[in-house]
Design brief:
about 280 residues; N-terminal domain of MutM-like DNA repair proteins; alpha+beta; single chain; DNA-binding; 2 domains; Helicase, Ruva Protein, domain 3
Length: about 280
DNA sequence: CACCAGACCTGTCCGC
DNA sequence: TGCGGACAGGTCTGGT
């Protein structure tokens, strides 16, 4: 489900509800989604603590508590975090429920149950490998054209796989990779190392643009994604590539195509994104 | 190290 | 209406 724009939207919509709130009780309905520590310890680390702030790193959301515990979520494909006021219905597929002061709740729901939760002391955070190895994020100071040039250099892996690799760039997923490749005119099967000096700034800007616009639109809702208030995003109305196979390219009118790259559905325009450089 | 299939799960959609 | 298969926003592991 969620890539960086969706997680950032969740962070922003939850923050006003959760900042300064106390966790009174935690209901663990599906313990295997808790990865660290053991579920009873997980609960013990949270109960009675106050949420000081919400951070996001790549596709991870972190609630930092007043005892320095970091409550970390990775939503994988179908995880949802939703704030519900006292008396509101739970919704379906609730897995972990955080009861807050005053009877309001933060509900972790997840249809496919791939999502992961952790309650970590600061020194334990490196145990989360994906978090420890996270590459620079789009729109960050570290994500420069020079960084991208060096990271791409001589790589024989496909550009699509490269952009999905969270240790290279943190936060892109299948939707926004297809969008960035479309906007920069690069065919998804080309190798990372084949990106030319002329294409490099276009790709860099395209990555920043799709993430920026995704956030501005509150994320992309195709199926499960909802923000912290249960609302949908609108970026699905502004996509150029993802999910548009068979439809006319928004730039040249050619029929968009869909192939599989590295096992992932991949959408592109055969005219705007020629395979030959 | 690159690359792929398979695994983890449930739900939905499409064709027969 | 029912059934089987493909597919879904993500990562991790194990094999070649």
């Amino acid at each position: 489900m969620p890539e960086m724009p969706e997680l950032e939207t969740i962070r922003r919509t939850l923050e006003p509800h959760l900042k300064g709130r106390r966790i009174m009780q935690v209901e663990v309905l599906l313990s295997r989604q808790i990865k660290w520590p053991e579920p009873d310890q997980f609960v013990a680390r949270l109960v009675g603590c106050t949420i000081e702030r919400l951070e996001r790193k790549g596709k991870y959301l972190l609630l930092v508590l007043d005892n320095d515990i970091h409550l970390v979520f990775h939503l994988r494909m179908t995880g949802q975090l939703c704030y519900r006021e006292k008396g509101a219905a739970d919704g379906t597929h609730s897995r972990i429920i955080f009861n807050l002061d005053g009877g309001d709740r933060l509900i972790y729901g997840d249809v496919r149950t791939f999502g992961t939760l952790y309650a970590m002391k600061p020194e334990e955070l490196p145990k989360i490998q994906g978090l420890a190895e996270l590459g620079p994020e789009p729109l960050s100071e570290e994500f420069t054209i020079d960084y991208l040039r060096t990271a791409l250099a001589k790589k024989k892996t496909k550009i699509k796989g490269f952009l999905l690799d969270q240790s290279k760039i943190g936060g892109l997923g299948n939707i926004y990779v297809d969008e960035a490749l479309f906007l920069s005119g690069i065919h998804p099967l080309r190798t990372a190392g084949s990106v030319t000096e002329e294409e490099l700034p276009k790709l860099h800007e395209a990555i920043n643009r799709v993430i920026r616009e995704g956030i501005e639109d509150g994320g992309t809702t195709f199926r499960d994604y909802r923000n912290g208030d249960g609302g949908k995003g609108s970026h699905q109305e502004n996509l150029f590539a993802y999910g548009r196979d068979g439809e006319p390219c928004r730039v040249c009118g050619t029929a968009m195509e869909k192939i599989r790259v590295g096992g992932r559905g991949t959408h592109f325009c055969p005219k705007c994104q020629p395979f030959e450089v």
